[in-house]
Amino acid sequence: MKMLPWSALLVCFALVGCADNLSGDTYSRDEARRTMAVQYGTVDSVRPVVIEGERSMLGQGGGAVIGGIAANTVTGGRGQALATAVGAVAGAVAGGMAQEKMTRAQGAEITVQLDNGSGIAVVQEVQSLNEFVPGQRVRLTQADGKTRVAPLYYRNP
């Protein structure tokens, strides 16, 4: 019975790891083979940002289960039901916070001067803040209200 909280915790962390990727080079299956509009431009500025994480019922529910099981396991007697309930509520709060923190991402607000004279700003996840620099030529792809910025000449890592 003592392994149950740890195995439940591992399942929750595995599921939290399935969060969406917001980088410019990751596409969902639904986005594959769709037509996208393409524009070209030059990076005007790059500003570091934090892309907030998700808070869903998955993290809160997993935390509630783990908190409830843990509280139930360590308590006994007449207060066991109350301790289990309190543990579940505390676990839900902690699980939601953990999920939000684990799914945060480093991002960049990339301001681009388009070749047609207009400007646009796009926020996307980046591995390094040096991926885009002022003066760099970029390609923007747009579809379904989503825009991605990519270096015009792709460099292999």
Distance between the termini: 47 Å
Number of helices: 3
Helix content: 25-40%
Structural class: alpha+beta
Question: What's the architecture of the largest domain, going by CATH?
Answer: Beta Barrel
Main β-sheet description: 5 strands, antiparallel
Question: How does this structure look, described?
Answer:
By secondary structure, this protein is an alpha+beta fold. Helices cover 35% and strands 29% of the residues. It has three helices and five strands. It has a five-stranded antiparallel beta sheet with strand order 3-2-1-4-5, with no helix packed on it. Strand 4 and strand 5 (146-151) form a beta hairpin. Helix 1 packs antiparallel against helix 2.
Features:
single chain, 157 residues, alpha+beta, OB fold (Dihydrolipoamide Acetyltransferase, E2P), 2 domains, 3 helices, 5 strands, 35% helix, 29% strand, elongated
Summarize the structure in short.
The protein contains three helices and five strands. It is an alpha+beta fold.
Topology, pairings included?
Layout: H1 3-16, E1 37-51, H2 57-74, H3 80-102, E2 105-114, E3 119-125, E4 137-143, E5 146-151
Antiparallel strand pairs: 1-2, 1-4, 2-3, 4-5
Helix pairs in contact: 1-2, 2-3
